[in-house]
Amino acid sequence: MTNATVTQEPAKHAKRVKAKKPASLWSDAWYDLRRNKIFLIGSALVLILILMAAFPSLFSPIDATKAATCDLAQARKGITSEHWFGTDNLGCDTYSRVIYGARVSIIVGIATGVITAVIGGGLGLLAGFYGRWTDVVLSRLAEMFFAIPVILGALLILAMIGRDKAGAWFVVMALAILAWPMILRIMRASVISAKSQDYVTAARALGAGPGRIMIRHILPNAITPVIVTATLNLGVFIAAEAGLSFLGVGVQPPEISWGLMIGDARNRFLEAPEPLIFPAVFLSITVLAFVMLGDAVRDALDPKLR
Protein backbone atom coordinates (compact mmCIF):
# COMPACT_ATOMS: atom_id res chain seq x y z
CA MET A 1 0.00 0.00 0.00
CA THR A 2 1.43 3.37 -1.04
CA ASN A 3 1.58 6.52 1.04
CA ALA A 4 -1.04 8.14 -1.22
CA THR A 5 -3.45 5.28 -0.51
CA VAL A 6 -2.84 5.55 3.23
CA THR A 7 -3.50 9.29 3.05
CA GLN A 8 -6.72 8.85 1.09
CA GLU A 9 -8.23 6.22 3.44
CA PRO A 10 -8.56 8.52 6.53
CA ALA A 11 -10.02 11.22 4.31
CA LYS A 12 -12.66 8.83 2.95
CA HIS A 13 -13.40 7.59 6.45
CA ALA A 14 -13.83 11.17 7.68
CA LYS A 15 -16.29 11.88 4.87
CA ARG A 16 -18.31 8.80 5.75
CA VAL A 17 -18.39 9.76 9.42
CA LYS A 18 -19.44 13.27 8.51
CA ALA A 19 -22.20 11.96 6.26
CA LYS A 20 -23.52 9.54 8.87
CA LYS A 21 -23.41 11.98 11.76
CA PRO A 22 -25.17 15.25 10.90
CA ALA A 23 -24.45 18.26 13.06
CA SER A 24 -27.93 18.94 14.50
CA LEU A 25 -31.14 17.22 15.56
CA TRP A 26 -33.03 18.51 12.52
CA SER A 27 -30.40 17.43 10.00
CA ASP A 28 -30.10 14.10 11.79
CA ALA A 29 -33.90 13.68 11.66
CA TRP A 30 -33.99 14.54 7.96
CA TYR A 31 -31.19 12.05 7.35
CA ASP A 32 -33.28 9.32 9.00
CA LEU A 33 -36.55 10.35 7.34
CA ARG A 34 -35.07 10.11 3.85
CA ARG A 35 -34.26 6.46 4.56
CA ASN A 36 -37.55 5.60 6.25
CA LYS A 37 -39.88 3.72 3.89
CA ILE A 38 -42.93 4.57 5.99
CA PHE A 39 -42.13 8.28 5.70
CA LEU A 40 -41.58 8.04 1.95
CA ILE A 41 -44.84 6.17 1.37
CA GLY A 42 -46.80 8.49 3.65
CA SER A 43 -45.27 11.58 2.04
CA ALA A 44 -46.09 10.31 -1.45
CA LEU A 45 -49.72 9.67 -0.47
CA VAL A 46 -50.03 13.07 1.23
CA LEU A 47 -48.52 14.82 -1.80
CA ILE A 48 -51.04 13.14 -4.11
CA LEU A 49 -53.89 14.11 -1.78
CA ILE A 50 -52.72 17.72 -1.64
CA LEU A 51 -52.56 17.81 -5.45
CA MET A 52 -56.09 16.37 -5.56
CA ALA A 53 -57.30 19.07 -3.19
CA ALA A 54 -55.52 21.93 -4.98
CA PHE A 55 -56.02 20.81 -8.60
CA PRO A 56 -58.93 18.34 -8.78
CA SER A 57 -59.37 18.96 -12.51
CA LEU A 58 -56.06 17.15 -13.08
CA PHE A 59 -57.62 13.94 -11.76
CA SER A 60 -61.21 14.25 -12.97
CA PRO A 61 -62.59 15.71 -16.23
CA ILE A 62 -65.98 16.24 -14.55
CA ASP A 63 -66.50 19.29 -12.33
CA ALA A 64 -68.36 17.80 -9.38
CA THR A 65 -69.20 21.25 -8.00
CA LYS A 66 -71.64 21.88 -10.87
CA ALA A 67 -75.13 20.42 -10.48
CA ALA A 68 -75.49 20.22 -14.28
CA THR A 69 -73.04 17.28 -14.31
CA CYS A 70 -75.58 15.12 -12.41
CA ASP A 71 -78.24 13.11 -14.25
CA LEU A 72 -81.06 11.75 -12.10
CA ALA A 73 -81.81 9.14 -14.76
CA GLN A 74 -78.34 7.65 -14.09
CA ALA A 75 -78.86 7.42 -10.30
CA ARG A 76 -77.27 4.48 -8.49
CA LYS A 77 -75.64 3.01 -11.56
CA GLY A 78 -72.78 0.59 -11.03
CA ILE A 79 -69.22 0.86 -12.25
CA THR A 80 -69.00 1.61 -15.98
CA SER A 81 -66.42 2.97 -18.40
CA GLU A 82 -67.98 6.44 -17.99
CA HIS A 83 -68.41 6.26 -14.22
CA TRP A 84 -65.43 4.47 -12.68
CA PHE A 85 -66.92 4.51 -9.17
CA GLY A 86 -70.58 4.40 -10.21
CA THR A 87 -73.12 7.14 -9.48
CA ASP A 88 -74.87 8.29 -6.31
CA ASN A 89 -78.53 8.83 -5.43
CA LEU A 90 -78.71 11.99 -7.56
CA GLY A 91 -76.91 10.54 -10.56
CA CYS A 92 -73.65 12.38 -9.82
CA ASP A 93 -70.35 10.74 -10.75
CA THR A 94 -68.94 9.24 -7.56
CA TYR A 95 -65.34 9.31 -8.78
CA SER A 96 -65.36 13.06 -9.44
CA ARG A 97 -67.07 13.74 -6.11
CA VAL A 98 -64.45 11.66 -4.28
CA ILE A 99 -61.70 13.67 -5.98
CA TYR A 100 -63.29 17.02 -5.15
CA GLY A 101 -64.10 15.83 -1.62
CA ALA A 102 -60.39 15.68 -0.79
CA ARG A 103 -60.28 19.48 -0.61
CA VAL A 104 -62.45 19.75 2.51
CA SER A 105 -60.57 16.99 4.33
CA ILE A 106 -57.15 18.49 3.60
CA ILE A 107 -58.27 22.02 4.51
CA VAL A 108 -59.81 20.91 7.80
CA GLY A 109 -56.89 18.67 8.76
CA ILE A 110 -54.06 21.10 7.99
CA ALA A 111 -55.83 24.28 9.12
CA THR A 112 -56.95 22.78 12.43
CA GLY A 113 -53.51 21.31 13.03
CA VAL A 114 -51.77 24.64 12.40
CA ILE A 115 -54.22 26.69 14.49
CA THR A 116 -54.07 24.34 17.48
CA ALA A 117 -50.27 24.20 17.27
CA VAL A 118 -49.99 28.01 17.20
CA ILE A 119 -52.52 28.66 19.99
CA GLY A 120 -51.60 25.75 22.23
CA GLY A 121 -47.87 26.13 21.56
CA GLY A 122 -47.88 29.86 22.25
CA LEU A 123 -49.86 29.59 25.47
CA GLY A 124 -47.81 26.58 26.59
CA LEU A 125 -44.61 28.55 26.00
CA LEU A 126 -45.88 31.38 28.21
CA ALA A 127 -47.18 29.03 30.93
CA GLY A 128 -43.98 27.00 31.10
CA PHE A 129 -41.59 29.96 30.96
CA TYR A 130 -43.23 32.41 33.37
CA GLY A 131 -44.82 29.87 35.75
CA ARG A 132 -46.60 31.11 38.89
CA TRP A 133 -49.96 32.81 38.27
CA THR A 134 -49.51 32.74 34.49
CA ASP A 135 -49.11 28.98 34.62
CA VAL A 136 -52.01 28.58 37.05
CA VAL A 137 -54.45 30.63 34.97
CA LEU A 138 -53.55 29.07 31.62
CA SER A 139 -53.44 25.53 33.02
CA ARG A 140 -56.84 25.86 34.67
CA LEU A 141 -58.27 27.35 31.46
CA ALA A 142 -56.86 24.45 29.46
CA GLU A 143 -58.32 21.93 31.91
CA MET A 144 -61.79 23.46 31.44
CA PHE A 145 -61.61 22.84 27.68
CA PHE A 146 -59.76 19.55 28.09
CA ALA A 147 -62.67 18.13 30.09
CA ILE A 148 -64.97 18.44 27.05
CA PRO A 149 -64.75 15.58 24.50
CA VAL A 150 -63.66 17.08 21.19
CA ILE A 151 -66.25 15.38 18.98
CA LEU A 152 -69.12 16.00 21.40
CA GLY A 153 -68.12 19.62 21.96
CA ALA A 154 -67.72 20.27 18.23
CA LEU A 155 -71.10 18.63 17.63
CA LEU A 156 -72.75 21.03 20.08
CA ILE A 157 -70.96 24.09 18.66
CA LEU A 158 -71.90 23.27 15.06
CA ALA A 159 -75.47 22.42 16.08
CA MET A 160 -75.79 25.88 17.65
CA ILE A 161 -74.37 27.53 14.53
CA GLY A 162 -76.99 25.78 12.41
CA ARG A 163 -76.84 23.80 9.21
CA ASP A 164 -77.46 26.82 7.00
CA LYS A 165 -74.19 28.42 8.20
CA ALA A 166 -72.07 25.30 8.63
CA GLY A 167 -69.01 24.86 6.41
CA ALA A 168 -65.42 23.69 6.38
CA TRP A 169 -64.09 26.73 8.24
CA PHE A 170 -66.75 26.43 10.94
CA VAL A 171 -65.65 22.81 11.44
CA VAL A 172 -62.05 24.04 11.75
CA MET A 173 -63.13 26.61 14.34
CA ALA A 174 -65.13 24.09 16.38
CA LEU A 175 -62.30 21.55 16.45
CA ALA A 176 -59.57 24.12 17.14
CA ILE A 177 -61.49 25.60 20.09
CA LEU A 178 -61.46 22.25 21.85
CA ALA A 179 -58.18 20.66 20.68
CA TRP A 180 -55.56 23.26 21.65
CA PRO A 181 -55.26 22.26 25.39
CA MET A 182 -53.43 19.04 24.45
CA ILE A 183 -50.74 21.04 22.65
CA LEU A 184 -50.51 23.49 25.57
CA ARG A 185 -49.80 20.72 28.07
CA ILE A 186 -47.14 19.15 25.85
CA MET A 187 -45.42 22.48 25.16
CA ARG A 188 -45.59 23.54 28.81
CA ALA A 189 -43.85 20.36 29.97
CA SER A 190 -41.21 20.70 27.26
CA VAL A 191 -40.54 24.36 28.13
CA ILE A 192 -40.22 23.61 31.85
CA SER A 193 -37.61 20.99 31.03
CA ALA A 194 -35.75 23.26 28.59
CA LYS A 195 -35.60 26.40 30.75
CA SER A 196 -33.56 24.63 33.41
CA GLN A 197 -30.75 23.84 30.97
CA ASP A 198 -27.33 25.47 31.13
CA TYR A 199 -27.67 27.35 27.84
CA VAL A 200 -30.67 29.25 29.24
CA THR A 201 -28.70 30.13 32.39
CA ALA A 202 -25.83 31.32 30.21
CA ALA A 203 -28.17 33.46 28.10
CA ARG A 204 -29.57 35.11 31.25
CA ALA A 205 -26.04 35.75 32.53
CA LEU A 206 -25.20 37.50 29.25
CA GLY A 207 -28.16 39.83 29.72
CA ALA A 208 -30.68 38.31 27.29
CA GLY A 209 -34.27 39.39 27.93
CA PRO A 210 -37.24 37.03 28.43
CA GLY A 211 -38.45 37.45 24.86
CA ARG A 212 -35.07 36.61 23.35
CA ILE A 213 -34.60 33.64 25.65
CA MET A 214 -38.02 32.23 24.78
CA ILE A 215 -37.74 32.70 21.01
CA ARG A 216 -34.03 32.10 20.39
CA HIS A 217 -33.14 29.51 23.01
CA ILE A 218 -36.16 27.70 24.51
CA LEU A 219 -38.59 27.49 21.57
CA PRO A 220 -36.24 25.71 19.11
CA ASN A 221 -35.38 23.12 21.77
CA ALA A 222 -38.93 22.64 23.10
CA ILE A 223 -41.00 22.56 19.93
CA THR A 224 -40.13 19.03 18.81
CA PRO A 225 -42.90 17.24 20.79
CA VAL A 226 -45.42 19.78 19.48
CA ILE A 227 -44.43 19.10 15.87
CA VAL A 228 -44.79 15.36 16.41
CA THR A 229 -48.20 15.69 18.09
CA ALA A 230 -49.49 18.18 15.52
CA THR A 231 -48.48 15.85 12.68
CA LEU A 232 -50.23 12.89 14.28
CA ASN A 233 -53.33 15.01 14.92
CA LEU A 234 -53.80 15.76 11.20
CA GLY A 235 -55.35 12.35 10.60
CA VAL A 236 -57.47 12.70 13.74
CA PHE A 237 -58.93 16.02 12.57
CA ILE A 238 -59.68 14.64 9.10
CA ALA A 239 -61.55 11.71 10.64
CA ALA A 240 -63.37 14.10 13.00
CA GLU A 241 -64.56 16.25 10.09
CA ALA A 242 -65.88 13.16 8.30
CA GLY A 243 -67.71 12.08 11.44
CA LEU A 244 -69.30 15.50 11.97
CA SER A 245 -70.36 15.71 8.31
CA PHE A 246 -71.75 12.18 8.51
CA LEU A 247 -73.87 13.24 11.49
CA GLY A 248 -75.22 16.19 9.48
CA VAL A 249 -73.66 19.08 11.42
CA GLY A 250 -70.43 19.51 9.47
CA VAL A 251 -70.01 20.42 5.82
CA GLN A 252 -73.31 20.91 4.00
CA PRO A 253 -74.25 20.78 0.30
CA PRO A 254 -73.27 22.12 -2.18
CA GLU A 255 -69.84 21.54 -0.59
CA ILE A 256 -68.47 18.03 -1.03
CA SER A 257 -67.11 15.97 1.83
CA TRP A 258 -66.30 12.28 2.16
CA GLY A 259 -68.26 12.12 5.41
CA LEU A 260 -71.24 13.78 3.75
CA MET A 261 -71.04 11.33 0.85
CA ILE A 262 -70.97 8.37 3.23
CA GLY A 263 -73.96 9.74 5.12
CA ASP A 264 -75.98 10.25 1.92
CA ALA A 265 -75.20 6.75 0.63
CA ARG A 266 -75.76 4.71 3.78
CA ASN A 267 -79.52 4.24 3.27
CA ARG A 268 -79.04 2.73 -0.21
CA PHE A 269 -75.91 0.73 0.52
CA LEU A 270 -77.31 -2.66 -0.50
CA GLU A 271 -78.70 -1.23 -3.71
CA ALA A 272 -75.62 0.84 -4.63
CA PRO A 273 -72.57 0.21 -2.40
CA GLU A 274 -70.06 2.16 -4.54
CA PRO A 275 -71.04 5.70 -3.34
CA LEU A 276 -70.28 4.59 0.24
CA ILE A 277 -67.33 2.26 -0.25
CA PHE A 278 -65.07 4.53 -2.32
CA PRO A 279 -65.32 7.67 -0.11
CA ALA A 280 -64.71 5.43 2.92
CA VAL A 281 -61.64 3.89 1.26
CA PHE A 282 -60.18 7.31 0.37
CA LEU A 283 -60.90 8.58 3.89
CA SER A 284 -59.11 5.59 5.41
CA ILE A 285 -56.12 6.00 3.08
CA THR A 286 -55.88 9.71 3.93
CA VAL A 287 -55.98 9.13 7.69
CA LEU A 288 -53.47 6.29 7.33
CA ALA A 289 -51.12 8.47 5.26
CA PHE A 290 -51.02 11.23 7.89
CA VAL A 291 -50.63 8.70 10.72
CA MET A 292 -47.69 7.10 8.86
CA LEU A 293 -46.18 10.55 8.40
CA GLY A 294 -46.62 11.37 12.07
CA ASP A 295 -45.14 8.06 13.24
CA ALA A 296 -42.09 8.55 11.03
CA VAL A 297 -41.56 12.11 12.29
CA ARG A 298 -41.90 10.93 15.88
CA ASP A 299 -39.33 8.17 15.37
CA ALA A 300 -36.91 10.60 13.74
CA LEU A 301 -37.22 13.38 16.32
CA ASP A 302 -37.39 11.33 19.52
CA PRO A 303 -33.83 10.57 20.71
CA LYS A 304 -35.15 7.74 22.96
CA LEU A 305 -36.18 5.75 19.88
CA ARG A 306 -32.74 5.84 18.27
Automatic annotation (TrEMBL):
Organism superkingdom: Bacteria
Entry's localization field: Cell membrane
SUPFAM superfamilies: MetI-like
Segments crossing the lipid bilayer: 38-59, 104-129, 141-161, 167-187, 222-240, 276-297
Main localization category: membrane
Gene3D superfamilies assigned: MetI-like (1.10.3720.10)
GO process annotations (BP): transmembrane transport
Membrane topology: Multi-pass membrane protein
Similarity annotation: Belongs to the binding-protein-dependent transport system permease family.
UniProt protein name: Peptide ABC transporter permease
Organism: Sphaerimonospora thailandensis
